[in-house]
Amino acid sequence: MPGASLVCYGSDDTRGARTLLEWSMAAYGHGPPLHLHRERTITFHVVQGTLALMYGDRTIMVSSTTPIEVSSQVPHSWWNPTAAPVQFQVGYFPHDIATFAQALADLTVGDGHWPCPATRATIALLARYGIKLAPD
């Protein structure tokens, strides 16, 4: 995933219950394509800046407020809509997603953009972690 990431705590720390990653995203940074997790609930908490979050049929601007929860099976995506960097935490319940995040980072192109969702390697990685691209 583009941007610097830090594993705050992982599956090993929580007996497989959850993983918390902290991300930073540059000004006007792109997030992932619209996708859903088959068996994973996700929470977003912005530490600094503003994050645009699309989930279901809603798009909201999230700043340092209450965490936002996205249930499994709900299509979602996020991006930085501002000229300032954004720092945010993403909690995954259950499952260790830290290895997925590293594998995805390895597939990103040098300028920090997401890999093309149609590449065979990306689709295989998504499937291995129960993630499905949402239809356009």
SSE inventory with pairings:
Blueprint: E1 5-9, E2 19-25, E3 35-37, E4 41-48, E5 51-55, E6 58-62, E7 68-70, E8 76-79, E9 86-93, H1 98-107, H2 120-128, E10 131-133
Helix pairs in contact: 1-2
* Major sheet description: 5 strands, antiparallel
| Assigned CATH architecture | Sandwich
Low-confidence stretches: none
Which structural class matches the secondary elements? mainly beta
Mean pLDDT: 77
Total beta strands:
10
CATH fold category name: Jelly Rolls
Question: Main sheet: which strands, in order across?
Answer: 1-2-9-4-7
Approximately how much helix is present in the residues? 10-25%
Q: How many separate domains make up the residues?
A: 1
Radius of gyration: 14 Å
Structure characterization notes:
- The chain has 136 residues and is mainly beta.
- It has a single domain, classed as Jelly Rolls (Sandwich).
- It is built from two helices and ten strands.
- The strands form three sheets. It has a five-stranded antiparallel beta sheet with strand order 1-2-9-4-7, with no helix packed on it. A three-stranded antiparallel beta sheet has the order 6-5-8, with no helix packed on it.
- Helix 1 (98-107) runs antiparallel to helix 2.
